[in-house]
Amino acid sequence: MSGEVTPGQTVGPFFHLGLPYRGGNELVPATHPGVLRLHGRVLDGAGDPVPDALLELWQADPAGRVSREPGSLRRDGWTFTGWGRAGTDAAGHYWFSTVAPGAAEPGRAPFFALTVFARGVTDRLYTRAYPPADAAVLAADPLLASLPEDRRATLLATPDDSGSRAGLRFDVRLQGGGETVFLAFPRNREPWT
């Protein structure tokens, strides 16, 4: 061994073997009042679906409180933990059953914090999905305000009422034209801050 630093390498992807769990993408049951379906696709640089990605979601509740409740891995049907995990299917599609988040801090727009794990990605990627909101609220959000308009658009979820319940669509593009904005967080900082 020469002791030289080498680039990281992925192993797998093996996400589907051990990380998803029953009900992981259901932060609230489908019968919950105010249930919302956040869904979309994970796409590679060529626009092709990534069938073996894994997404984790963190969010505040509708009042803007960040839950510290245990129970995410063993859903009880009524405790909102604000966390979920979903894998993509063969078409790169994922979905979460949740509620609309409230703003966790004054002067900020509400958002879903997402972490993406995928083939060819040596470390997780952080991003946000902002639900539709008043233009002034979105413009005042420090993160959104720091981005050029075309890049800002990659963080905005769009209404999708095509199903039996209210929905938001948010596609994640890993690279290339229209690449989703990804964020860097200092060590030990939580993604909803």
From TrEMBL:
Family matches, as InterPro entries: Intradiol_dOase_C, Intradiol_dOase_core, Intradiol_RC_Dioxygenase, Protocat_dOase_a
Residue ranges constituting the Intradiol ring-cleavage dioxygenases domain according to the UniProt record: 35-175
Keywords of this entry: Dioxygenase, Oxidoreductase
Keyword match RNA-binding: no
Alphabetical list of PANTHER family matching this protein: DIOXYGENASE, PUTATIVE (AFU_ORTHOLOGUE AFUA_2G02910)-RELATED (PTHR33711), PROTOCATECHUATE 3,4-DIOXYGENASE ALPHA CHAIN (PTHR33711:SF9)
Similarity remark: Belongs to the intradiol ring-cleavage dioxygenase family.
Full protein name: Protocatechuate 3,4-dioxygenase subunit alpha
